[in-house]
């Protein structure tokens, strides 16, 4: 409900990095002079040559920011904290899935990064070379990212669970010089081989070396002259490294879109603009403080981790947690065990995981002291109001504000998000655009939508962390993101949204997920939120299947909470519940109970696969799916005679 407000605790409202008065002042400054606003944020970093120019206003959308500045990203994330006397502060608490652990101080991290930078240089890696990193969540993963940034190489992170074919595409597209991988990784209690996939992916490529981190100790195939052990080459290197400064527009990393429509796009992010917006939004949105223990639980291959697990927190000198494993290994309370063990104060997670916790029940929290938590965050897709309330009440103890963030791989950093001490919150809304950012909701003809009218979310002025292009394909960059409103110069996010009368933004999911039922536009997020608000439903995925009468028919797939089971009354009950929440037009035609929903590796529901199966088609590209067995559960539900399926 749009009138349901949660106000920040009095101490946060008073002591936050950005208070209500600060927020209004900053917004006014940005509206008056966007360049001056972002130049002031840039000057919080250490520059060898401080920029005098912000946005260039040039060949839009091929923009530049801070183009006359020079800096080193890694110096800002590591060296300057050591130089300031904070070298003994813990930078990373790392915990492996089997329970092994290590604490890495900023001084330790500086030495590790120096050795890795020298090692990469010894392997022939230099400025502009692409290094593909195919690793799980390890300390070495962070180290190699920072080492690449230090020497001006471009890192391209690939999720350690991706197939050899997905890795091969990224190696070839980036024309990688080196691939960094591991002998194996731990996944749900098992040591899973990894290097074999890397070997398959580099066959016939221009890769000169495969750098291998020893994690599980298992035997691996070895190509003499090409393959190099990480521990051997880094041990030979000095622990000091003179860092070169680079122009602000030097490429920092490639991040690939999921490829659910067409082949994946390699988005290019550059050093100065990206780090400026990343560091400031991390400080402002997560209210970073010197005594914080922060945990962003994203895999290091995702853009979430680039921005709010590596570069943002480290630029702000934060202590943070890294966890290698899955949330249910060796038990379903593992996340809460870690939160309690390290005294985590700020926890940034995904709505899909929150909904999974809901299906597991509150027993997973028992025995874990979460009293140090003071702030929670959400990312990946719009969080259902019921999941927001569950997170706030059960994990946050009813005291922790939730920073619900909207942004994308393309935007590089948060765009719409709360400043937690500066404004009230509405469950399910990402609140307002951050200072220095401007978004609006428009109709297909480009006219501004009325309050609470759904439309297309666009970014209507430039921002520093914007992806600069698609690697090797600038035309595709323009066609993908700027062609729709090229005359206005607007970035089209591909998300549907509405803005309420208070100016709060409500995401409605990908435009492709908005369905048309008898002429009524309904969003998957609204329908799924209505289903999740039912006490027996923990997760829901909704699609619009082809229908000869209504154009599209609403088909829902639900995962039940805790010990709840399907019965003959469930379908009717859920359909009636959605009707009460959203009206008769939103009543699902079918409701299917499934054990698990198909999701991407980053936790997003793969609705297109649900649509393929519900339409009788074989599913398309399943490269990104985290659990292929989920499709079998959907198939079984579709052909079953379970009474919780209603087709009238």
Automatic annotation (TrEMBL):
GO terms for molecular function: acetate-CoA ligase activity. Keywords: Acetylation, ATP-binding, Ligase, Nucleotide-binding. It comes from the Bacteria. PROSITE patterns: AMP_BINDING. The keyword Nucleotide-binding applies. Residues 526-604 form the AMP-binding enzyme C-terminal domain. The keyword Ligase applies. It holds the Pfam family AMP-binding. Its EC number is 6.2.1.1. InterPro entries: Ac_CoA_lig (IPR011904), ACAS_N (IPR032387), AMP-bd_C (IPR025110), AMP-bd_C_sf (IPR045851), AMP-binding_CS (IPR020845), AMP-dep_synth/lig_dom (IPR000873), ANL_N_sf (IPR042099). Residues 24-77 form the Acetyl-coenzyme A synthetase N-terminal domain. Residues 84-463 form the AMP-dependent synthetase/ligase domain. Belongs to the ATP-dependent AMP-binding enzyme family. This is Acetate--CoA ligase. It comes from Actinomycetospora atypica.
